[in-house]
């Protein structure tokens, strides 16, 4: 409670200090007598402010001490100026009188100082002060710049919108498989083998391998027949299968094996007929 | 033997070198003086080094010698001024002299300078800037708000060392004041101004006793 009171008191005192400072800074305009009186008044008030606060409070609020010193400084400055003015006042100089005289007799005050070096000017003067001849600036040689070749830079791809050529084919194969497998799993070899072209067979195997890797289709070996069968994997099961790590299978095929398989499966026409680019 | 002669030769060579350096220095000071802007020792040094290849340890001797020449031939006197930026010189007359009015100096500017110097002297101390502007306006020399004209006092005349323009106090109480500069102290005997005052107001110089005391102390 008491500390609160003290801070309120300090605040009030600071306001009074500031008012004093403000007052002192405008004192310049007042005449000398007023200046002396008001400066004295300010010093008295500061003293009373200081007494009011007491030592303990001053320790608590150093800002007060700062303001106090500023007021003191301002008053001492003013006192100095007042005393200067007083010694000046003793003399009988009247600046208004002098100013009027100068205004009325300007020639009288056009003095040459006794120890001033007279300005030296040459009898024949300098060269006529004509400005130097303006020389036309040499026009700058224009250098025809060669058109810079278009900068070669890799295309910046913002989004991988363009699907790769291969992936387009893969999705076609997937669509075909899912259509063909509506009535159950299909024999893998029946699907991929193309009796007319070994190359297309290899291609089919290639596409299917992607689907298997991505978990879109599954190839399981049928227990009864001992042959691999293919079936699409519904999206709900894909996660599971992926988690199990079952997304690899290895197929090796060569020309001889292809022929063998084609005759063994008695394939006369390719099952997968795709639009190929 | 031959060595001795050689060194003697060198000495005499040095002497002719120094003589021409003195001449060059006189010429330089003579030409530079007209602007009334103090001449820096460093500038003299640079000039002599580039023109006469004067060794820097000789420059002081050259300047002293040049001062003698200026005194003997032209009646000039070099005054050394120690500034923050190094030693500078101003050139004044060795003796008081009733010179003719110069055709080169602008009479308006001269009146402004005389009025300012007289006002400072007669006020008996540094004159506050505002007081100076009021006085000059009253004397019909400078319009109340002629800031370009004020610059003449604050910059040009201060640079020429006729006036000194300094800030006193700080914070809200800071003021700029005018005082006499070094050149004014050298060129203008206070008694001269006081006699002009006496002429103007038909009084004896002793009428302004404070100023009279100062003027007599001055001489």
TrEMBL record, chain A:
Question: Which residue ranges does the record annotate as region Disordered?
Answer: 128-149
Q: Which GO terms describe its biological process?
A: DNA recombination; DNA repair
**Where in this chain does the record put each Non-structural maintenance of chromosome element 4 C-terminal domain?**
185-272
Q: Does the keyword Nucleus apply?
A: yes
Q: Which UniProt keywords apply?
A: DNA damage, DNA recombination, DNA repair, Nucleus
Gene Ontology cellular-component terms listed: nucleus; Smc5-Smc6 complex
Top-level taxonomic group: Eukaryota
Q: Where in the cell is it found?
A: Nucleus
Q: Which segments cross the bilayer?
A: none
Cited function: Component of the SMC5-SMC6 complex, that promotes sister chromatid alignment after DNA damage and facilitates double-stranded DNA breaks (DSBs) repair via homologous recombination between sister chromatids.
Self-association and partners: Component of the SMC5-SMC6 complex.
- Spell out the family assignment given in the record's similarity comment: Belongs to the NSE4 family.
Q: What's the protein called, per UniProt?
A: Non-structural maintenance of chromosomes element 4
UniProtKB/TrEMBL annotation, chain B:
| InterPro entries attached to this UniProt entry | MAGE, MHD_dom
Protein name, as recorded: (apollo) hypothetical protein
Question: Taxonomic lineage of this organism?
Answer: Eukaryota, Metazoa, Ecdysozoa, Arthropoda, Hexapoda
Q: What GO cellular-component annotations does this UniProt entry give?
A: nucleus
Provide the MAGE domain boundaries: 18-215
């Amino acid at each position: 409670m008491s500390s609160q009171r003290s801070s309120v008191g300090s605040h009030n005192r600071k306001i009074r200090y500031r008012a004093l400072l403000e007052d002192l800074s405008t004192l310049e305009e007042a005449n000398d007598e007023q200046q002396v009186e008001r400066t004295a008044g300010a010093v008295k008030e500061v003293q009373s402010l200081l007494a009011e606060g007491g030592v303990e409070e001053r320790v608590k609020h150093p800002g007060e001490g700062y303001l106090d010193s500023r007021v003191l400084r301002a008053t001492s400055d003013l006192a100095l100026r007042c005393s200067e003015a007083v010694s000046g006042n003793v003399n009988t100089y009247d600046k208004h009188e002098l100013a009027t005289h100068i205004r009325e007799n300007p020639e009288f005050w056009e003095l040459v100082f006794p120890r001033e070096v007279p300005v030296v000017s040459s009898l024949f003067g300098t060269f006529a002060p004509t400005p130097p001849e303006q020389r036309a600036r040499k026009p700058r040689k224009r250098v025809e710049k060669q058109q810079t070749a278009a900068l070669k830079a890799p295309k910046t791809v913002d989004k991988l919108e363009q699907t790769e050529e291969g992936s387009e084919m893969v999705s076609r194969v997937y669509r075909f498989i899912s259509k063909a497998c509506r009535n159950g799993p299909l024999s893998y070899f029946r699907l991929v083998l193309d009796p007319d072209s070994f190359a297309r067979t290899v291609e089919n195997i290639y596409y299917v391998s992607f689907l298997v890797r991505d978990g879109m289709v599954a190839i399981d070996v049928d227990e009864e027949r001992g042959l691999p069968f293919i079936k699409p994997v519904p999206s709900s099961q894909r996660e599971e299968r992926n988690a199990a790590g079952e997304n690899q299978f290895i197929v090796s095929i060569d020309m001889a094996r292809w022929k063998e398989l084609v005759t063994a499966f008695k394939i006369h026409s390719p099952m997968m007929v795709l639009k190929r680019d | 033997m031959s060595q001795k002669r050689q060194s003697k030769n060198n000495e005499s060579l040095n002497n002719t070198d120094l003589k021409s350096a003195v001449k060059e220095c006189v010429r330089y000071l003579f030409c530079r003086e007209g602007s009334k802007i103090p001449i820096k020792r460093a500038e003299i040094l640079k000039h002599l080094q580039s023109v006469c290849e004067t060794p820097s340890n000789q420059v002081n001797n050259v300047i002293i010698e040049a001062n003698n020449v200026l005194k003997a031939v032209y009646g000039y006197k070099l005054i050394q001024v120690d500034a923050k930026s190094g030693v500078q010189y101003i050139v004044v007359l060795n003796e008081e002299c009733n010179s003719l009015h110069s055709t080169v100096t602008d009479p308006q500017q001269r009146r402004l300078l005389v009025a300012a110097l007289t006002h400072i002297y007669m006020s008996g101390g540094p004159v506050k800037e505002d007081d100076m502007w009021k006085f000059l306006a009253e004397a019909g020399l400078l319009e109340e708000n002629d800031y370009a004209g004020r610059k003449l006092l604050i910059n040009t005349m201060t640079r020429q060392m006729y006036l000194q323009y300094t800030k006193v106090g700080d914070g809200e109480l800071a003021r700029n004041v005018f005082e006499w500069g070094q050149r004014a102290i050298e060129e203008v005997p206070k008694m001269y101004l006081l006699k002009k005052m006496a002429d103007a107001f038909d009084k004896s110089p002793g009428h302004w006793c404070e100023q009279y005391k100062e003027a007599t102390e001055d001489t």
